[in-house]
Amino acid sequence: MSQILDAYRGLKLGDRWDGAPKVVRWAVMLLVIAFAFYLPYLNILPFAYIRTDLSSTGSDWASVLFLIVVYMIVAVGLNVVIGLAGLLDLGYVGFYALGAYSIALFGSTNSPVVGALQSRFGFSEEWAVPFAVCIPIAIVMSLIAGVFLGAPTLRLRGDYLAIVTLGFGEIIRITARNLDNVTNGAAGITQVPVPPGPEIDGRNFFNTIDAERWYWLALTVLLLIIFLARRLEHSRVGRAWLAIREDEDAASVMGVAGFKFKLWAFAIGATLGGLAGLLFGSKQQYVEPNAFMVNLSFLFVAMVVIGGSGNIFGALLGAFLLTYLPERFRAFVDWRPFAFGVALVAVMILRPQGLVPSRRRAREFEDRRHEAEEAAADV
Amino acid sequence: MSEQRMTQDMAVELKDTSDHELIEMHTSGEVGETLLEVDHVTLRFGGVVALNDVNFEIRRGEILGLIGPNGAGKTTCFNAMTGVYTPTEGKIRFKGKEIAGTKPHRINHLGIARTFQNIRLFPEMSAMENVMVGCDARHKTSVVGVLFRLYRVRPSEEELPDSGIRRSLAKVFGISRHTLEERAGRRRSMELLRFVGIADRAHELARNLPYGYQRRLEIARALATEPELICLDEPAAGFNPAEKEDLMGLIRRIRDLGHTVLVIEHDMKLVLGVTDRIVVLEFGSKIAEGTPDEVARNPKVIAAYLGEPDDAA
Ligand SMILES: Nc1ncnc2c1ncn2[C@@H]1O[C@H](COP(=O)(O)OP(=O)(O)OP(=O)(O)O)[C@@H](O)[C@H]1O
Ligand SMILES: [Mg+2]
């Protein structure tokens, strides 16, 4: 018995997880999910110290949770692109912005687009595209943008792709700022609609005060996305991405349509980015170009890379850390860029594969390091 | 994959004994008809003429040897046939259809697979997963299909799960095509690994396999794509005589499954023993073609090939 226990202790956490009976795994998973839903109300010491609203200057806890989850959706999407398909996308904020702008442009009575539709079809001043219709619009817009950006650029490899996507992110923001008579330019669009729901206490179900409801909504979306992303990973699609990453030419000779699968990765990533943007814009009820600066793209990439690319849970952890820590330690706000830089450098030196990488990714890094060392020794 | 999962999987995988039906090729063509035509193909790399007006055909059901000294253009010929390079001049027809210039993955779907002279497996995938990638070439589930599993298939009695609830669910809603394809892919992969003789290390990473296993794994992966024509680029390179003999046996068994085989091999003795016909290249040109006997007697071949010290033997 003790021998078995010893052997058990020797295993890594991941192995223990894999080895645990199905019932245990389900139970743990359900507990974690239940706890996640309970988080906004967490008030028992000492756990309550994780809250961000302990001092009067702190940020609203539920809103922080909401933002964390929105960025987690972003990270899961970007992980498909960077971690699974191995494509470096530095313009991810572009899709995020597109999602937010889709719902604003079509759903807000303040938007010039809705205004034009009203006068064209003789609708009343209150009319706007219903929220439920805005969702597919946002999804389709980001999907199309992903395909349009991907189709010509995915033939590029490595650095070139990074540069082109970087440009894309900026183009979206600058376009949004300059197209005054479509997007209201720098002024932004107000009155972005919220999801429909029953009225409680004379307020919409989704309103600016009860942020935990937004958090629950986003969390539900996130769980669904994680479920789907894992389906992809453990299927012919995930295998194709991995094969492309390992040896693209050999993969294509084995019948893997490399371009098609890369484009899919891009499109899926774009869609998830758009969905996250939609949630963000809807909760803010206000969308403006400056919310989508290029540094947000870098933050997104950093989430995936620090967390551990290729592993959904790594990406989730990265998103959590990079969103939560700055909010929790708001008192040190001036130090934020510095701390961020130091943390990034530290991770890259000490654990280049990320905090919780996929095992394959960890080995790939290890291999590359050996190759580099051998190459250096040869000189 | 963790130890536990691995053993679980293996138990499932190894349960049913060898089952050739899973990996047999069923083709409609007739043995002896022309399968692939290399029609006056010339391929230049700048000034280098790698293939010079090369002309031969491969007939369904045969084992054709492609031989020649180093740098003769054998691998280049494979590359032209599998879409890696496009011929400068000339045509390549597979089952009567022009394929020069077609993308490699499309050529694979048409029915040509290959192995590489310098092994090119997916090193971070297990042996089994490598073969699964090959199987996927024939699978139909799309990305949307993987995500939403809306395409349901009415399962046969043996495909139904054992346990109660799952069984009833599968009876009512059917089983998704994706699930069935994954399952079939795993079984076929295992059978192929068994066929080439490396099933005992199915769940090890390709990079950790010994050299001989890697070479055989390449063959299994190529076979998984259900090719009518399989091209083996020096599959026995680096083998000792006993292993080489073994491999030639494997090549014969591959043909017996219903594949047509094109094989590059340096060891003249082996080539003569296993092939039905042989094409000889030298400096990019075809210098001889015929049965092993004819080729072995051909003075040009003797001068160009047999006359030289055979470094690979
Ligand atoms: N991509 C390339 N660019 C330039 N030259 C090439 C290229 N590929 C092959 N060659 C040249 O084409 C000629 C034929 O090469 P190939 O690899 O086909 O020979 P081979 O018959 O396979 O030889 P080996 O027995 O050594 O494998 C060689 O002179 C080689 O240098
Ligand atoms: Mg060669």
UniProtKB/TrEMBL annotation, chain A:
The chain crosses the membrane at residues 23-41, 61-82, 89-107, 127-151, 214-232, 263-280, 292-325, 337-356. It is found in: Cell membrane. InterPro entries: ABC_transp_permease, LivM-like. Keywords: Cell membrane, Membrane, Transmembrane, Transmembrane helix. The keyword Transmembrane applies. The keyword Transmembrane helix applies. It comes from Nocardioides baculatus. It is a multi-pass membrane protein. This is Branched-chain amino acid ABC transporter permease.
